[in-house]
């Protein structure tokens, strides 16, 4: 090769870094060698291993085309050939550093590197800023869609329109809501051909994400012990599909009772096997421990309550301690239905009311499964009895023959004293039962309280079985009859004459009344209804004596089992729920301390709520006792929450929305029914979920 040929182990272009190899031992020339320490002293140095020579990086790549005195073009040191004399090389390096040409080349190199580094940084920064802005705008768009979805779902409103094309005047609630409230940047995205994410498929994604976050918020409320109860019921929706509603009852960390819906599920088959499999599947999908399902609550249908192959028995085969509770409200309803349906005087009265309705007054719908409507209807008729008769009198002169005939017949039926007497009697009876029914629908009601409520209802009904109550009812009927000019048959009610008792009986309490009453109506109506109803209650609420449910006596100051660690009720409870591994030694100590602590509060009759509040202030001292109370609070009473869920289902899946898909319907129902939890959904987290469930056209995550 040429004498001054540049070795190939040096930098090839000005974009390459200076060649500065680190060797364990550099080649010797006259017992001297190159030192890598010179790199830090003279950063322009390049070392060629091939030639064992030093070159100048800036002078090679940023040549100033200047010839110093004594130099020959094409044979310039540090450029065309390297320095390889290692005797006092630093003097030569320093001399070269002061060379005018070298100084100019160094300035050019420094300027080049500064511009190059700034450009790299500027381009990278600009790209990063642009990407962040793009992602921010995309996330803002998705968050706006989520807010619109949340609003419509919470309010139970429809999303889609009949015609969603650009030429449509009404594209449906979802798109119309977006267009009305979108800012300029969002409006541009909505008008774009792609990436507006408003199609039905994307709506389903948005709805599902919010529903999933809502369920997550619900499940996060369950206390650390993690126990829960399942409440399940079925109904047919507007499209005749069998829908199963699934509700969880649980206690949070502050010992507040919650009943929250998880969703509704289309059941193609309604046999016990299919239902139990679906329930287990729902529990698994929501990542709940099935062993912590302490109870199950259904209605009394054989498929649910069957003791051999019903749903409750199949669940107990997996979780033996999962107690079955027949819905208390349903049982109370059955008691009344069976009582009234067996009495002809009552069935005739209510059948008349069901067949002949008035268009001029709003009466409650009379159906066997909703007997509370009967009380409301009776109350309205009793309250507006005079006005109803006046309207019927007017309708007797109506031009329509059918209206005249109907109003005449109705007026004749309700204008008898017998009708008024039955009306007043049934209103009094149903009033007592209605109070119990309303209280049983309270989702936070405790099972011990429900048991006492049933006992009190029975007691109050038995107290009505007296002549004093009957005289009061007759007096009300008499006053209403007189006010409306209705004659009373002498066989039904006679004027009462003042009775004079033997003076020798003055010191005694007389429990029977004197004078003529109506023994036939009194016995057939008042006494018989009360007697049969209380018998029905005894039959249908007999399991309330179950020892497991009687654990509440441990927290009843009037009971001999009050904080009694030796109570058989406590032993049965611990044995039944042995999965939770109660520490009996700790229970003995805690019960003794708890009893003393409650007594020091000077509370005369502390109820279970007061006891819970007092002990929960010292959770580490009463671990086992609070565990018992948590299970007790979680035990179910009714499926009223499921019934309320079905009421919402009728509003959400209406006639115009009868083709709503099963998954979409379940998600919409959760958001609608559990609106409070849905309102606290983390929208940033929801956007991340939207980005991750499938590949999106636009980036949403950095």
From TrEMBL:
UniProt cross-references to PANTHER family, sorted A to Z: OS05G0311600 PROTEIN, PTHR45749
UniProt-recorded name of the protein: Zinc finger MYM-type protein 1-like
Stored SMART domains: ZnF_TTF (SM00597)
Gene Ontology molecular function: protein dimerization activity
Originating organism: Aphis craccivora
InterPro entries: DUF4371, HATC_C_dom, RNaseH-like_sf, Znf_TTF
Residue ranges annotated for the TTF-type domain, each copy included: 30-121
One Pfam family matching this protein: Dimer_Tnp_hAT
């Amino acid at each position: 090769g040429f004498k001054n040929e540049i070795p190939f182990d040096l930098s090839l272009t000005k974009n390459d870094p200076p060649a500065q190899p680190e060797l364990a031992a550099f080649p010797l020339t006259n017992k001297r060698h190159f030192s890598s320490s010179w790199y830090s002293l003279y950063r322009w140095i390049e070392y060629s291993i091939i030639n064992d020579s030093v070159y100048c990086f800036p002078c090679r790549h940023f040549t100033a085309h200047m010839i110093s005195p004594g130099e020959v073009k094409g044979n310039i040191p540090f450029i065309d050939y390297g320095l390889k004399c290692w005797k006092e090389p630093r003097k030569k390096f320093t001399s070269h550093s002061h060379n005018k040409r070298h100084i100019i080349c160094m300035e050019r190199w420094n300027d080049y590197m500064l511009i190059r580094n700034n450009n790299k940084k500027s381009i990278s920064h600009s790209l990063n800023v642009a990407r962040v802005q793009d992602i921010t705008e995309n996330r803002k768009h998705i968050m706006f869609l989520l807010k619109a979805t949340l609003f419509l779902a919470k309010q139970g409103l429809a999303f889609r329109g009949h015609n969603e094309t650009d030429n449509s005047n009404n594209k449906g609630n979802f798109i119309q809501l977006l267009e009305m409230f979108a800012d300029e940047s969002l409006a541009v995205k909505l008008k774009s051909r792609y990436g507006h994410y408003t199609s039905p498929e994307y709506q389903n994604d948005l709805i599902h994400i919010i529903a999933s976050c809502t369920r997550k918020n619900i499940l996060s409320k369950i206390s650390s012990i993690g126990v829960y109860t399942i409440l399940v019921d079925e109904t047919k929706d507007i499209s005749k599909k069998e829908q199963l509603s699934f509700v969880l009852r649980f206690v949070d960390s502050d010992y507040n009772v919650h009943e929250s819906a998880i969703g509704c599920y289309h059941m193609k088959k309604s046999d016990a096997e299919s239902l139990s499999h679906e329930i287990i599947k729902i529990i698994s999908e929501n990542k709940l421990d099935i062993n912590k399902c302490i109870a199950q609550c259904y209605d009394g249908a054989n498929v649910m309550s069957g003791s051999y192959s019903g749903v409750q028995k199949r669940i107990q085969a997996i979780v033996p301690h999962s107690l079955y509770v027949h819905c208390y409200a349903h049982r109370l309803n059955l008691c009344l239905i069976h009582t009234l349906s067996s009495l002809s005087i009552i069935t005739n009265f209510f059948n008349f009311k069901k067949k002949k309705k008035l268009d001029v007054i709003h009466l409650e719908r009379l159906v066997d499964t909703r007997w509370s409507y009967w009380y409301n209807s009776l109350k309205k008729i009793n309250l507006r009895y005079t006005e109803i008769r006046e309207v019927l009198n007017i309708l007797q002169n109506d031009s329509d023959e059918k209206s005249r005939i109907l109003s005449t017949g109705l007026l004749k039926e309700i204008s008898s004293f017998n009708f008024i007497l039955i009306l007043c009697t049934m209103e009094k009876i149903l009033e007592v039962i209605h109070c119990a029914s309303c209280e049983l629908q309270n989702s936070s009601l405790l099972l011990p309280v429900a048991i006492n409520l049933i006992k009190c209802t029975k007691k109050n009904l038995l107290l009505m079985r007296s002549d004093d109550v009957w005289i009061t009812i007759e007096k009300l009927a008499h006053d209403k009859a007189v006010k409306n000019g209705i004659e009373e048959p002498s066989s039904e009610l006679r004027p009462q004459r003042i009775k004079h008792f033997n003076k020798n009986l003055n010191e005694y309490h007389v429990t029977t009344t004197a004078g003529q009453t109506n023994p036939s109506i009194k016995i057939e109506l008042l006494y018989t209804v009360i007697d049969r109803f209380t018998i029905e209650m005894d039959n249908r609420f007999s399991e309330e004596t179950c020892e497991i449910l009687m654990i509440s006596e441990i927290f009843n100051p009037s009971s001999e089992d009050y904080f009694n660690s030796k109570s058989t009720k406590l032993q049965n409870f611990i044995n039944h729920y042995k999965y939770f591994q109660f520490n009996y030694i700790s229970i003995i100590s805690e019960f003794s301390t708890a009893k003393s602590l409650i007594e020091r509060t000077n509370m005369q009759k502390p109820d279970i709520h007061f006891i819970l509040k007092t002990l929960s202030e010292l959770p580490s001292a009463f671990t086992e006792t609070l565990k018992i109370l948590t299970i007790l609070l979680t035990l179910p009473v009714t499926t009223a929450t499921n019934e309320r869920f079905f009421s919402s289902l009728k509003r959400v899946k209406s006639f115009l929305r009868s083709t709503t898909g099963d998954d979409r319907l379940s998600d919409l129902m959760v958001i609608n029914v559990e609106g409070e939890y849905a309102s606290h959904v983390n929208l940033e987290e929801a956007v991340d979920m939207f980005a991750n469930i499938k590949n999106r056209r636009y980036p949403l995550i950095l």
